[in-house]
Amino acid sequence: MMDAASLAGLSIAQIERLSTLPPLETRILLCHALGLSRVQLITRSEQVPDAAQRELLAQLLLRRQAGEPIAYLTGSREFYGLEFRVTPAVLIPRPETELLVELAIERLPEGGSLLDLGTGSGAIAVAIAHARPDAHLTALDASAAALEVARGNAERHGVRVEFLQSDWYAALPAMRFDLVVSNPPYIVAGDTHLAQGDLRFEPVDALTDHADGLSALRTIVSGASAHLADGGWLLMEHGYDQAEAVRSLLAARGFAEVQSWRDLAGIERASGGRLVA
């Protein structure tokens, strides 16, 4: 274990060699603790961190060794080419969710409106708003702490998103959107993954519905028709084995063009359908 005292007198290069973490993780934490870019980390490899930097670095290394996610340690994560602030109040944005962003951008009409349910860090809404400044974005979350993070991310990237605290559709005014998207909690209660890896540190209510993994998805599908314009799309991320069940939910509610899309790993990661009159 590397504490602040054991780091005394060591250069950046020596710390990298002695760290028991994977090299990439060590470099990320070094960059964060020392305030250096990755290029500077290389060009200043013989630099010796000062006492304050050593103390911060030792704490970061210890917390990471205990399993705390890198994103929470550095307070940021890249998503769809943008840097997002993240805290333990929100899920860490993941690459597979970029599929939902791409699907939404493709289907959002010029000057159209979009609702993001359970926005968390705001990653989906902000990424879409950044790519489509012509669109009108509304994002909801039941968590006030999550909305604070999301608002900060919208401001950081200079995009317009209207945020509202709401438990799904409950507090939403009577209005209709061209598109509704959501990455809801879909992990089944008691799933062993909830006690493994990064998930141990993420907000549990954003991961699981504490039921069969489909209850939030059912709520979203059942309420969508009251908030979608005719011909509007509903797009949802879901678990690796839930695509068929989600398609059935959509079909039962009369959605047309019901289908699922695969992520880069070949997993059916998102499903959706179009509302028809």
TrEMBL record:
This is Release factor glutamine methyltransferase. Pfam families: MTS, PrmC_N. The gene is prmC. Methylates the class 1 translation termination release factors RF1/PrfA and RF2/PrfB on the glutamine residue of the universally conserved GGQ motif. It catalyses: L-glutaminyl-[peptide chain release factor] + S-adenosyl-L-methionine = N(5)-methyl-L-glutaminyl-[peptide chain release factor] + S-adenosyl-L-homocysteine + H(+). InterPro entries: DNA_methylase_N6_adenine_CS, HemK-like, N5-glutamine_MTase, PrmC_N, RF_methyltr_PrmC, SAM-dependent_MTases_sf, Small_mtfrase_dom. The keyword Transferase applies. Belongs to the protein N5-glutamine methyltransferase family. PrmC subfamily. Keywords: Methyltransferase, S-adenosyl-L-methionine, Transferase. GO terms for biological process: methylation.
